Amino acid sequence: MARSKAKIYWRVILVASLLSPFVFLSSTMRPWISSSHGLLLGQEILYPFEYIWDSGTHGISSVWRHYIDLTRVSETNTRLDKEISLLKSQMLDYEEKQSEIGRLRGLFGFAQHFQGSHIVAEIVGSQSYPNFKTMRISKGNADGVHVGMPVVTAEGVVGRVIRAGLKFADVHLLVDTNFNVDILLQRTRIRGVLKGSDTDCVLKLNRRDEVRIGDTLITSGIVGGFSKGLPVGKVIRIAYESDNISQTVTVEPWVNFDRIEEVIVLDNHDKELQKIMETAGEDWLNKPFKENEEAGG
Amino acid sequence: MDSLLRRDTWSTVRSLTTGWKLRPNTGSLPKDIIFALIIVFLQTTVIPTLFGSVGVFDLITPWIVVTAVRQRPLQASIIAMVAAYTLETKLAVPAGIYLCSYWILINIFFQIRPALSWRYTTPWLVSYALSTFWIIVFETFVLMFLHENWVFSATFVFQQIAKLIVATGFGLFLSREWMRIDAEEPVPQ
Prior knowledge:
heterodimer, A: 297 residues, alpha+beta, globular, B: 189 residues, Arp2/3 complex 21 kDa subunit ARPC3, 7 helices
């Protein structure tokens, strides 16, 4: 009797486990997003070891690069000297242009790109899985890093913080398939939502939208906490879809994710917009336009 | 009896290293959880640093297979869930992907393990290969769900084949002590 009961119990468990993929696939398919230490307990335990490992490997590679592998140093020095003198002359021109832009911005009432505070963090552990891309940084809740904050480098957008521990945070990278960011084509000012796709990003546009190979994409500043005008990437491929309505634009990010060592976390987190995005979905911004189109058409 | 035990430093160190030798199924749940966390750490931090993009090796799946074969259901479920959850909170994978796939995996093992003789290499080999294949299939299916582009690039296929081979090899290494004809059956028959 007890044996048959146990058999039924195990069959129920097995059936329940076999049904679990349906529950999983009908969910939002988003990564764990949290800054709760309880939820990130395993990560909090592992982080010190990860930090030690990362510092150790960095130390060894740094000793190798700076004290042993010096065969190209002289060649690089000569090249850099030339570059410095060229850049010095460009700087003079740049300073003049910067003051001109400042004046024009003031004139048109535009906000500066970014005036808020920021946190500089080191990379601790790079992309651990090729298909689901994150990066761990050395600053967490204790340093003022919170979930949703945009992460950038001097080259451009890196991603957004999805999990924050006490002394670390995980950054969801721009090239991950689950990452979306609102962008503008710098030349034509066309807006779209850029989606990560393995090593590049993809952008779906209307066939009539003008786009060229080499066009630069910048953040639109509308949603997601990124301030307007941050460089994202450049167009490297355009494919016209067979439906004759849309075109798929492949974008190469400006940031080389394999070579980043430090990042800047922008304290520009728009909590209200983030909440709207999470509850209403990515398409919420287009809804009024669609309704207008439907009413008009 | 206690006074007969050797208490010199070398014996103490040796007993500590034997007790804390990295292996599944130590007989202590806290130790098993710590070892599972170490395997997660090796898989997500150490191996990618050493092998770069080639080193997408799966060490957790064989570890969980051994756990599912050797441990009692409750303990095995706890260890598998801790490992899966820690793995998920490290990566940007959709929440639940590993919890779901490992939950199915261990439940299937609980059903089939009394019917097989684990003294032979074949059940272990097939279990490791099929389990890793199941995880790869599940991951790929979710990727296809998320991706708008074709996911089956040459690199992707190579990575998955390498993952399958390494996971099976690692699993066979883990279970070598039970693959002898005179070994004790890990599961009561």
